[in-house]
Amino acid sequence: MKNIINFEDWEKLDLVVGEILEVEEIEGADKLYKLVIDLGEEKRIVCAGIKQHYSKEDLEGKKIVLIANLASRKLRGVESQGMVLAACNKGKVRLVEPDKDIEVGSRVS
Fold this sequence. Notes:
The protein is mainly β. It has one domain: CATH 2.40.50.140. 8% of the residues lie in helices and 40% in strands. It contains 2 helices and 9 strands; from the N terminus they run H-E-E-E-H-E-E-E-E-E-E. The strands form 3 sheets. A 5-stranded antiparallel beta sheet has the order 3-2-1-4-7. The mean pLDDT is 96.
């Protein structure tokens, strides 16, 4: 188990349901996609290292969970404005997504 955090640390995370609108290749990147994600009141660009696990067609229109208040970071020249959550185990990667339909922008708690 990693470091234990207190409840106040958990409250700092802004986890939001988003919908992937567009998926683009990033030149020279064999693992990264550039995703345009709708969060309801805004759209975000997020880079995600899921190219080996999902096709563009699998991702477009998919609702996912995003850490919306993660500091921006430049990856392969693209500014990523959040992080898509995924479960990883023994080489498998599965996106974290709502089990039933819910509006984009919904908070995850």
